[in-house]
Amino acid sequence: MANKRTTSADSAWAQAGIDLHLDLRGSGLRAGLGEALREAVRSGRLAPGTRLPSSRTLAEDLGIARSTVTECYSALVEEGWLVARHGSGTHVAHRAEAARAPERSAAPPRRSPHELEPGAADYAEFPRAVWLSAARRALTAAPHSAFGYGDPLGRMELRTALADYLSRVRGVYADPARIVITSGFHHGLGILARALRGQGVGTIAVEAYGLDIYRDVLSDDGMSIPALEIDEGGAQVDALSALEPGSAALLTPAHQFPLGFALSAERRHALLDWARRTGGVVLEDDYDGEFRYDRRPVGALQGLDPDHVVYFGTASKSVAPALRLAWVVVPEHLLPAVERAKGRVDTVSVLDQLIFTDFVTSGAFDRHVRGRRHSYRARREQLVSALDAQAPEVRVVGMPAGLQAVLQLPEGTEASILEAAARRGLVVSGLSEFRHPDAAGSPWGSGLVANFSSVSDSAWPAALQSLVAAVS
Amino acid sequence: MANKRTTSADSAWAQAGIDLHLDLRGSGLRAGLGEALREAVRSGRLAPGTRLPSSRTLAEDLGIARSTVTECYSALVEEGWLVARHGSGTHVAHRAEAARAPERSAAPPRRSPHELEPGAADYAEFPRAVWLSAARRALTAAPHSAFGYGDPLGRMELRTALADYLSRVRGVYADPARIVITSGFHHGLGILARALRGQGVGTIAVEAYGLDIYRDVLSDDGMSIPALEIDEGGAQVDALSALEPGSAALLTPAHQFPLGFALSAERRHALLDWARRTGGVVLEDDYDGEFRYDRRPVGALQGLDPDHVVYFGTASKSVAPALRLAWVVVPEHLLPAVERAKGRVDTVSVLDQLIFTDFVTSGAFDRHVRGRRHSYRARREQLVSALDAQAPEVRVVGMPAGLQAVLQLPEGTEASILEAAARRGLVVSGLSEFRHPDAAGSPWGSGLVANFSSVSDSAWPAALQSLVAAVS
Hints:
Two copies of one chain form a homodimer.
Chain A: E1 6-8, H1 11-15, E2 21-23, H2 29-42, H3 55-62, H4 66-79, E3 82-85, E4 89-92, H5 128-141, H6 156-170, E5 179-182, H7 185-198, E6 204-207, H8 212-219, E7 227-228, E8 230-231, E9 234-235, E10 248-251, H9 265-278, E11 281-285, E12 309-314, E13 326-329, H10 335-342, H11 350-361, H12 364-390, E14 395-397, E15 404-408, H13 414-423, E16 429-430, E17 447-451, H14 460-471
Parallel strand pairs in A: 6-7, 6-10, 10-11, 11-12
Antiparallel strand pairs in A: 1-2, 3-4, 5-13, 8-9, 12-13, 14-15, 15-17, 16-17
């Protein structure tokens, strides 16, 4: 434990006008003395140029061995805190003004733009015990080499497990060699944007409604991001024909975010026709493809044309954002550019990749998704029923699917209803927050985006009640 | 389980000249039929335009309910695989040429430029059991909210734990609010490069020896990266005066990588004087600061001047690269630029951050580092003794510290000795691989960089023997 004692220094210190209180702490006398001297210099109690007492004097004062003091002085000389001048002893080095004492500020909690939840965020359903079991198996079975730097594209066993899963569940045509593991969709989108820019792509069309952070990751990189209007058939992809050849388009075909429509069969064809005709690239954001409540979900667009569609999936919606795990299935012709854009050093926790592999291959992932689907489906149905009964003028837009619902409100009421929600302690977002800046004339007016998946089962009834009350 | 059976289709198929074998698999008949049809289209066995049998015919053929077939057809129409033409039945959609069957290529293992190890990479000392205990505690104790999107700068409890650790062990002057968690040094360096470029910095001097991936992360971003020559006092920082004001310098002051010298006290002062005089920024890469074998390590430069020094630390050397965990202590005036450069979405596994926090605060990190230090110290001493005895013309350069040693070889022998090492199955690197392209005239000629930390205790004696034999 720390040697904690306070001492006054002797005449040498007094000569410098200093009554130095050395607060010896840390493990070991030598370390404690060093820390005390550094702190005294830092705080300005020992001014630059001050001559320190001789090692003999200080040792006697403190009742410690002289060698302890000389070792400490020479270490601080080496670090740059002190200077030893031949014949004139040891002095405090001329440093910049004393640094401010660090304020142990608790940084204010940041609200992520993803947290669209009514009430406090609550990820109560994270499968802690199952995850820990997977961790035990994965960490026990991993070869030693797994603890080194990983493959920049991701662990091959995870990419193989995902190829099987995506083919089975989403109809994705996936070769493990073309799957890239990323730390979230945002990370993967940034990599693709760099890769496409490197191929000369200057335009990526986006949907008129979506998250600004994704638009930003494209436009920050210098891309032009024209908006595609949304109607009940999904994005109006015919507008793509006006773009220069070799452009790209970022879409949420299975379940438009946040409005909740599926891209119609005609538009799926038109979109792929555009891509083939013009050398275009479709970026398919399949963020919640596992969550359809009325029927088997529409398969991924990528399966229809793996050479023109980049598929993006994520564990953020199906398990938890804390994992920072997502995946991209890349067309073969884009793989070299994506590899260059991702760089030579992987950025995704290898341990999490190993554990998630076990989670997928053991069937725990399927079971978890099934359980969540069951729960979210019930919540969405309760939301629709409650609105039907108590706020019939509020329409729930989109398909029975996903993790959030858009409540379409009477025109011009969004701001006042958001205020009413806030008074009830609800954190929901206004639909207009998701609107592309160029889509001001969009026909989707006032609305709330309510994430019915982000509170615990126990908190849900109260959150639902507040939400319905706020819009009634 | 899968319904696995093969059937020949009826006259409708025969008309189209196809004898279709549907391989029904997947869970459930409906899913199995869908997958079989998709695969038949994909592989080209069902050509575009082919008319499918009526749902009644196919249902009879397969001995399944007609509704199963109609549901399946309409799902595939919605996905875009089939088209339904009013009055003329269901046809295969006109797709691009059939995609190639995915080759389940096992991607060749990539050698990371970090793996400088003699023999196969072996991270046998990763503390699996201790890590799993920490995981159990951390995941049990974490609030539900921890499973959401994290603070983009990192979990505050980890930043607080690191502030204490870095202050105690490395003399770093750390406020948790100014610590940023990254997924490795490479990630953090890229963020700082972008932040500095945003501040108008166009030049970051680097050491004449170092890893090319770090030079690349700077120069890819358009930075000029002049080289600072290295001698036994570390980097020759006087050359910084020739740079334009407001430049930066990336250094490994505690233990130059890979040559192994400490930056001398005079140069520490000269470096900080340069930074203060010219508004320069020092990037201190403290990659192996915990590993000094002859004495207490020289404290971090950052402690002397937290306003001009950005401190970088990592768990890659002290625990394992697989964690993808590192940290940057940022001067207050740079924090807004770094926050902008890091973006609004965190990229580091929150689970690993929670577990590592427990690992640090429980004392397991200190114990692990102490154990590793003990082992690496012994290995380095064995290496020096063995060379003294068997290859006296080979000098081990640098201080007794760190995870690798540079063996200085007789001039002009590097290539032939690397070949000799490769014949013995040793993966070591030549010193010239680390040389900055502009430092061709550097006085450090032939050498090997041998990472004595990257084999297991049991593999070490044989690796040592091969290494010494290769240079003898």
